[in-house]
Amino acid sequence: MNPSNRRDFMKAAGSAVLLSAGGMPLAAHARSSVESVKVLCGFGAGGAIDVLARRVGERMTGSYAKSVVVDNRAGAGGRLAIEALKASPADGTTLLLTPGAMLYIYPHIYSKLSYNPLTDLTPTAQAVTVPMGMAVGPMVPDSVKTVSEFLAWCKQNPNQASYGHGGAGSMPHFLGAMIERETGVKLAHIPYKGTQAAIQDTMGGQIAACTGTEADYIAHLKGGRLRMLGLASPQRTKFNPAVPTFVEQGLKTVVAQEWFAFFLPAKTPDDIVQDTNAALVAALRDKTAIDALAQLGLTVDASTPAQLGARLKADLETWRPIVKSTGFTAD
After folding, report:
1. What's the CA angle centered on 38, arms 261 and 301, to 5 degrees?
2. Which of 61, 136, 153, 215 is the least buried, fewest Cβ under 10 Å from its Cβ?
């Protein structure tokens, strides 16, 4: 649907987008005549971000478009999906759902990135947030229960002072760098092809610790072979209220929360952006979706397009010195 037809349709339907006191769209009441919307996802089926895309798509079907399909473009650490969005028409029929790290960390590790996060995408709606965290396994004595105790153990056992993570240049990789920067304790980082592989080796005693999102750990904590030492969230979470934050444990600068968000192509008309945002926020605030995402350790944290754009710019600047301090490049 072209922009003028969409505007005519919305007017004819007598649409109204309700706003909260903060200007957040609460619901999109008009039925859109868009035939099909595609949601690009840079990761394979079955992961948390894929499930999020499908949950939201289900709730947008019928109210926003006649069908919403998820297109998994796995590969290149999520970059393939971003490149596909960049090449898509700016008519509201193609969306991208991506973790923020591909947009605010990758520009600092790739000298030749195929997209510019500030000019090739249109921020549309943040969807969920999830904090980073560190966990240890049976290689580390049961008496080690805090981050400071783990770091003291690392000093005493420098050959075992390491952590696994889901890939060099990822946010969990740089969480370890933040801890090193704050404490001065050297930790060897061990990249894996995915966080779950790092978690399995941690639980198996092959490595001491691993870093990842809180959501990555949830399914493994009840078995007792994985112990969370700390979360890089501003405050404790409802999923693991007994786990203290890094800030509580004296690591004042170690705050790292990943967010997943929806984007439209660059130069998408503002009326389409606002219409899409309203539909996304309504889908995200559906109680069934909130409960389903909570099972994955994801907290719905929907936003306006302007709020998402501001967060992206801020995170680009926040992570620049952290990444540069490691000297790491992906080229």
Report:
1. 20
2. 61
DSSP H or E stretch at residue 214: helix 214-217
Please give the CATH topology (third level) of the domain spanning 3-129+259-326: D-Maltodextrin-Binding Protein; domain 2 (3.40.190)
Encoded amino acid at 297, one letter: G
Which is the CATH superfamily of the domain at 131-231?
Periplasmic binding protein-like II (3.40.190.10)
Task: Say whether pTM exceeds 0.85.
Answer: no
Are 231 and 238 in contact, with CB atoms under 8 Å apart? no
What letter would DSSP give residue 297? Answer: T
Within a 13 Å sphere around the CA of 250, how many CA atoms are in the beta-carbon half? 6
Q: Residue 325 above 90 pLDDT?
A: no
Tell me what pLDDT residue 32 has. Answer: 53
In the predicted structure, residue 179 carries a pLDDT above the cut 80: yes
Find, among 203, 212, 169, 187, the residue nearest to 324 by Cα. 169
Report whether 41 contacts 49 (CB < 8 A).
yes
Domains 3-129+259-326 and 131-231 share a fold: yes
At which residue do the structure tokens 């779950």 appear?
196
Classify the C-alpha dihedral 211-308-121-59 as positive or negative: positive
Query: Average pLDDT for residues 79-103, to the nearest whole number?
Result: 96
